[in-house]
Amino acid sequence: MKKIFSILIILIITTSASAQENTGDLKQLINASFGYFPKFKELQETVNTGEHRVKLAKSGGLPTLNAQGSYSYSYPVSEISAVSGDQVSAFKIMPNNKYSTMLNASYTLWDFGAVKASVDMKKSELESAKHNLDFYRSEVAFQVADIYYQVVYLKKAISIENSVIQFLEENKKDTEIKLKNGDALRYDVLSIQSSVDQENNNKIALKNALDKQIALLEYTTGKKIETNSSNFEFPAVTQSTAEQALESAKKNNSEFDLIRDQVKQAEAQVKLSHSKSKPSIILNAATGYTNGYTPDIDDFRYNYNAGVTLKIPIYEGGKYKEEINIAKSTLQESKYAEETLENTFLKDIREILIDIESSSSSIINSKKQAEQALEAQKLAQSRYKNGIGTYLELTNASTNVQRAELTTLQYEHQLCVGQYNLARITGLNYWQ
């Protein structure tokens, strides 16, 4: 029975990336995690911030209006002298106390696309924030699904363990009867009891792993989980070739959306960098009240002014040129990153499809082996009851059944893992 225990432990280790089941089905648990994880609130706030940044960028192309009031005292001030007969009089041409209230307006008539480039940049950043939220949803959904089906696996493994224990208990009773009749040894009874104890220990290990995975699921979803029985049922992805699956991924997987967002941001940065070296035409106007006008320089008087400013960058030490070069290099880098992502996805998809095909074929073979092992077990049990077979034959037959059933269970789990891996990589929102 040590071999059986080793098989169980290996299966647990190789598939224990997660586990789960539930108050509801998989969709309910995934959506519960979306509403529970604080990370989603953080990412949603990033989206909100992006929306405000778009509005801020748009404000760069809108008129500005501000009110201004000022007071200053100057001494001395300029004076002029006037001769009238024998007398010389001095007149101030500006007041000592200067008051001013103004309403100023400014509007950029033409900026060669600088504001538009800035708005496009912020819009692409906003889209990237939204796609990042989608990407995180996909990753969390994958983790919940992984936990969910690991719980299914562990529960089924426990069920197999229960059947083994039941089989051994039945044969223990038969052996005890034989012992009373002198047809068996005390050693046989003790050996079977030892096997029962070992299988119970295996069951405890499986139950412990199951409890930990359920606790992990509760941590992920924020809900108290009811462990109802379930099967390896997952909506299969219908793409028949790796190329078809890749096309679906390019359309639906948020990783591709994120890399395309990087390309758009780099393109917007190139345009923005170009616009910084272009002229701009700004309309300015102001109106208000101030003193200082002759002949009554202390009187508050209405005034206004308007004009146009032409700003032409001439020399900035090569700053704008280098910004353009950096933006172009970043754009090319993003395009190469998109090609790299396509190659990586195609490799992963091909591996997943191979795993799915292999698991499907292996399930058929392992089920046949399980049926044959079960028949052999029944035969060994009959022989043992009739005094023809030995305890060793019975033990080997039981081991073979357990090994075959666990192998089938492992292939079923691997097939399910392959299916939701393919769903994740092709961008299938199976939780909707």
Total domains: 1
Q: Can you tell me the CATH architecture? A: Up-down Bundle
Alpha carbon gap, first and last residue: 45 Å
Question: Tell me, what's the shape?
Answer: elongated
CATH class: Mainly Alpha
Q: Number of DSSP helices?
A: 9
Model regions low in confidence, pLDDT < 50 over at least 5 residues: 1-23
List the helices and strands and how they pair.
Layout lengths: L1 H14 L10 H11 L1 H21 L5 E10 L5 E6 L2 E6 L4 E14 L3 H68 L4 H36 L20 H11 L1 H23 L3 E11 L10 E11 L7 H67 L5 H36 L6
Antiparallel strand pairs: 1-4, 2-3, 4-5, 5-6
Structure commentary:
There is one protein chain. The chain has 432 residues and is an alpha+beta fold. It has a single domain, classed as Outer membrane efflux proteins (OEP) (Up-down Bundle). It is built from nine helices and six strands. It has helices at residues 2-15, 26-36, 38-58, 114-181, 186-221, 242-252, 254-276, 319-385, 391-426, and strands at 64-73, 79-84, 87-92, 97-110, 280-290, 301-311. The strands form two sheets. A four-stranded antiparallel sheet has the order 1-4-5-6, with no helix packed on it. Strands 2-3 form a two-stranded antiparallel ribbon. Strand 2 and strand 3 form a beta hairpin. The two termini are 45 Å apart. The model is unreliable at 1-23 (pLDDT under 50).
